[in-house]
Amino acid sequence: MKDIKPNEKLQLEFISFIQRILSEGDFVATYKYALLNAIADICIEKLDVSTNESLKIEHSLLAEKILQLYWHHAMPFSNLKSGADALLKQNSGAQSKVISVLYECQQNNIRSLGQLKRSSYWHESYRAALNTLKTGPLWRLQILAKQEECFLYPHDKKPQYIELKSGIAACFRRFYDLVVYLSKNAWLQKIQSIKYNQALIGPQSKLESFLFGEDRQSLAKVKPVLVDLQKNQCFYCQKPFKNDVEIDHFIPFSRYSNDLAHNFVAAHRRCNNNKRDFLASYEHRDNWIESNLVKHNQVIESELSRYFDCSADQSIAVSNWAYEVARSNHAKLWHGIDTFVDSTLTAKVLTFKKKHGEREDKIEANKSEKIVEPKPQLFYFPNLKIACGHFKTGDESDAEYMCIPDGVGKVDPNKHFFARASGNSMNGGKSPIFDGDLLLLEFITPESAGSLQNQTIAVERLDSAGDSQYLLRDIKKATDESGNTCYQLIAKNPDYETLVADESMKTFARLKQRIQ
Q: Which uninterrupted H or E stretch holds 245?
């Protein structure tokens, strides 16, 4: 029999990495939890997984697992609403594509995944799951603190599989119960946190907050004290407050769920939301110690002791523990908006002289901090050809990340993306677009599009096989022969005829910039 128990060092590194995924990953939807669960399931469903073997998992198998995991989620949850409105959402935006297609299947009397596989709905459902995986969670699960850290599997997007590194499958088998428990618990909390869902779920959505949450009423007492002590400046960026003051737990509440008076700082809403559950950099930690535990220790105790525990020693002990765990896990520390530092570069253990409140620094390592400035990136869809000719079939599979070139203005990763032009219909006029040019585009919907007059837009329609086709054109409002308003799709190259938009077409994106 093969040895299936991974070595102790790898086991510790594996648990640390799973912990980091859940605390440092960016979870705007629930897909990453499902992917983590799916990988764990597949690892225990495979026979003869040994310690030193890597494991290939086909994208197709992952897609089937995603459909299996979301099957019950696609059933109406509440009697308060009807139809699709009774479905729980998996993100704060529009309903998940996977949920929508599975709901449609169930409405057409498909009652199991096995039945779905044998039905005419299988192709659409499978494709929705596969595209969802490739455009998001497969390549974003291991992005921690905005940086790729491929501990579980390399981000090799060419083959139609992922390959778990040596010993990782064995770790998933060894800690299956823990991984599934953590991923499903975090998944549940994500669903409960979505405002739309709270009206469907009812009062139990507040149960965790009621039992273990922050005392919001008492936190209101903290704000005026800290704003005064910090001279009306954000603790992190040192810029003045306006009407955007929030109270932050310096050691995040998710790491240590007890309120200590010395652990509070006042911060801008933007800084607080961006820091989230990360530990702050050592520079911020030094400032926190100097401000809250030395300089303003007495004031904090006198003003807040009736509401919270006040102990400088306890606060330091919790701080030492949190940063020790961060160092052992090689976690990133938050330094500023989307900026992180390495937790292993500086390490301090602190104690206090109780008589005078003076600080003693026991320096374990004294290396200078290096601020990591991650290069901004956007999604790039190599298979999504924006046709500069006639309508051309394309899809959003095999999504990649691409660094934003110099000279590109402000972009939003949730809205903007890169794709290639295909064809020559737009290679005329003052701003020609040539075949193969890299285009910066912005996703738009009828609600967000605004006026499209005299803009260059990408139009989408379905071909006879149900696949998406795309076309890039200038748009102009006009009047048809009957005197009705219509929209013309105009090519910059006069060799291509003008088209009139019809109901089969929908606005997909607008051109922001041709990248030189």
A: strand 245-249
Report yes or no: 123 and 227 within 8 Å, Cβ to Cβ: no
Contact 488, 500 (CB under 8 A): yes
Greatest mean pLDDT range, 128-137, 491-500, 502-511: 128-137
CA distance 116 to 110: 6
- Give the lowest-confidence range in 271-275, 290-294, 337-341, 508-512: 508-512
- In the DSSP assignment, the letter for residue 281 is P
CA gap 494, 490 in Å, rounded: 9
CA–CA separation, 135 vs 466, rounded Å?
20
Q: What angle do CA 350, 354, 355 make, to 5 degrees?
A: 140
Place of tokens 């983590």: 36
| Residue 140: count of CB within 10 angstroms of its CB | 20
The Cα 126–Cα 101 span in angstroms is 9
The number of beta carbons lying within 10 Å of the beta carbon of residue 126 is 18
Distance CA 397, CA 130 (A): 8
> How many Å apart are CA 469 and CA 458, to the nearest integer?
10
Run of H or E including 134? helix 122-135
Q: Which residue has the tokens 């869809």?
A: 381
- Tokens representing residue 390 in the block: 């006639």
Q: Specify which residues 509 forms β-bridges with.
A: 443, 458
pTM over 0.85, yes/no: no
Query: Cβ(463)–Cβ(394) under 8 Å?
Result: no
**Residue 468 near residue 131 (C-beta atoms within 8 A):** no
CA 427 – CA 421 distance, rounded (Å):
10
